[in-house]
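Lecture 7 notes: from sequence to structure.

We start with a single chain of 167 residues. Read the sequence below before looking at the structure.
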Amino acid sequence: MGGATTSDDLVAVSNPNMHTFQQQVEQYYQPKASAPGCENTSWLADDAIFLVFIGINDVCRSYESDLAASNVPALLQAYFQYDDELHISGARNFLFVSVPPFDRSPQIVSRGAQDAASCSNFINTYNWQLTQAVNDSASANIDSKINIYDFHTWMPQVLDLPQTYVL
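Now the structure, written as tokens:
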């Protein structure tokens, strides 16, 4: 769902019809598919992967506010609260995705090199803390496979050499 954030309490969604990660877990996932093998789903703990790719809107909107530095720990605490809810319901295989370098987007680049560098630092801080939180979650949930895909490192390759990717 494009435009979603982790929680409206921390960063508002851009569209009132957009569902936050919190809403997706609590209003859609838990009532309809929260237990492996339940009537409304066919997934099993050992054959389902839960891909969690959220953070771009949280990081972008936090960066553009006065709450940037203080928002990252709160965002990640909420992020992993909802992931813990998935785990409690039986989810055991997780793949988290880091935030790509949107500091290279025209919106940020047009503000100048200093702002782009500051934005890049903020994204790096968020991704570092996300990686730490993923590692902590993996240590706490030894019954699970928990990994992170470093989208932030891969994406510049595409941006720098789009012809390699037939773009």
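The radius of gyration is 17 Å. Keep this in mind for problem set 3.
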